[in-house]
Specification:
13 strands; 413 residues; Rossmann fold; 13% strand; alpha/beta; 12 helices
């Protein structure tokens, strides 16, 4: 089997399904487990830190781990950095077969910090029976020194190991999400996958094909050649995961526009492209009439702002998104219209519109119809913490003897 620790809503599992295999995920969060179940993924709902390792001995080919990043992320208090010496101590002790977690946990500033040592508990147990064959781990960039510690131990156990920082946009993800990656193998030389995309497209050359340009948000979301979004007026769901047709503020924006006569539904003859993200009547987009001939294509590009902070990342829709993170900032990731954009009636364009869970999932490279469970906040939390499947498929393919096709996500062999 392939064991997936801290499996979340299924980023690694989705990648494995593309590669034609399955994993079994260990995950604690109830809503992530519901999402995994709806996606048809095998899951044990459990605390990874308390689950026994013996059921996996002698039957585990690969081990995947993406420990929770909240203690280390720049979006939080980053107490994991304060706790780092204790985490390193836990890794060293577990590798030697000593379980000192209880004492170290009591000394940690953030109890989640020590979860980054849990993969070593499983690795040490599996190593006693000559497994696993390969390892793939992912975390926020600040965890890289800990991956170096893991690498030293795994090399002593006979693994070839590579670790470093990879940018998801270099592998076709419409997001410049940088992550610390560790890859290890007993049977092949560990190395990072060759990038398939670049910030500037590269032409074909003597030694093979060039790299395509980074995938833009507009391209991923199916907004057409103009890279202009049609502002959505749906959200990720109401309490319990049901539909919430209008996010906070959007209903008023739409009502005010109708009252001014500045809103109307586009006719089918206006060249509007069907939005592939809305598969039913609950996910419709509001038509916003743009001044005919009065706005150039370049001026029609909206931007995505990551949060309300002064240093928030702002990217145009014809670029990849910045790193998506949510949690308590779930409602602060918004689409921002370009300055002075006006409707056909001469009114200024709508106020910034909150991103939907479906859009955020696509920008993480999940399918548009991925079955996110829970209310809006629960869905955004899962999406922000997930591993982008397009990145994961490139990391895992070599371990499974698979070769990716030119469109990155389809298999050539």
């Amino acid at each position: 089997m392939i064991l997936d620790l801290f499996a979340g809503p299924g980023g690694w599992s989705r990648a494995l399904s593309v590669l034609g295999v399955r994993d079994i995920g260990l995950e604690w969060d109830a809503w992530a487990c519901k999402t995994r179940s709806a996606a048809g993924q095998l899951t044990i709902r459990t605390d990874v830190a308390k689950y026994p390792t013996w059921p996996f001995l002698g039957r585990t080919r690969g081990l995947i781990a993406s420990p929770p990043c909240q203690a280390w992320s720049r979006a939080g208090k980053r107490l994991g950095l304060v706790d780092q010496p204790r985490v390193h101590q836990a890794v060293a002790d577990l590798a030697a077969g000593r379980d000192t977690r209880d004492g170290l946990l009591a000394a940690c500033r953030d109890p989640r910090s020590l979860l980054a040592a849990e993969p070593m508990r499983y690795l040490q147990a599996l190593h006693t029976v000559g497994q696993p064959e390969w390892v793939a781990m992912e975390e926020v960039p600040d965890v890289l020194p800990l991956w170096a510690h893991y690498a030293a131990i795994l090399r002593n156990w006979g693994f070839s190991v590579w670790y470093g920082i990879l940018n998801s946009a270099d592998y076709g993800v419409p997001q410049t999400r940088r992550r610390a990656i560790l890859l290890a193998s007993r049977t092949r030389t560990a190395a990072p996958p060759a990038p398939t995309h670049a910030q500037v497209a590269e032409p074909e050359h003597l030694f093979g094909p060039g790299r395509a340009r980074w995938v833009s948000m507009a391209s991923a979301l199916g907004w057409g050649a103009t890279d202009r979004p049609v502002p959505t007026v749906c959200a990720g769901g109401g309490p319990g995961g049901g539909p919430e047709p209008f996010p906070s503020g959007s209903r008023k924006t739409l009502t005010d526009a109708r009252a001014r006569g500045a809103w109307k539904t586009r006719s089918p003859h206006e060249g509007t492209r069907q939005d592939p993200l809305r598969g039913d009547e609950e996910h419709r987009s509001a038509g916003v009439p743009w001044a005919a001939g009065g706005v150039g294509t370049r001026d029609r590009s909206w931007s995505l702002r990551s949060n309300s902070q002064a240093n928030a990342t702002v990217r145009r829709a014809d670029e990849p998104a910045g790193t998506l993170f949510f949690g308590h900032r779930a409602n602060e990731c918004v689409w921002v219209p370009p300055p002075n954009l006006r409707t056909a009636a001469g009114e200024l364009a709508p106020e910034p519109i909150r991103i939907t869970a479906r859009e955020a999932g696509v920008l993480q490279s999940f399918p548009a119809d991925y079955p996110w469970a829970g209310n809006k906040g629960q869905q955004f939390s899962q999406i922000g913490n997930a591993v982008p499947p397009r990145l994961a498929v490139h990391l895992l393919a070599p371990h499974l003897g698979k070769r990716l096709g030119p469109d990155d996500f389809a298999l050539a062999a």
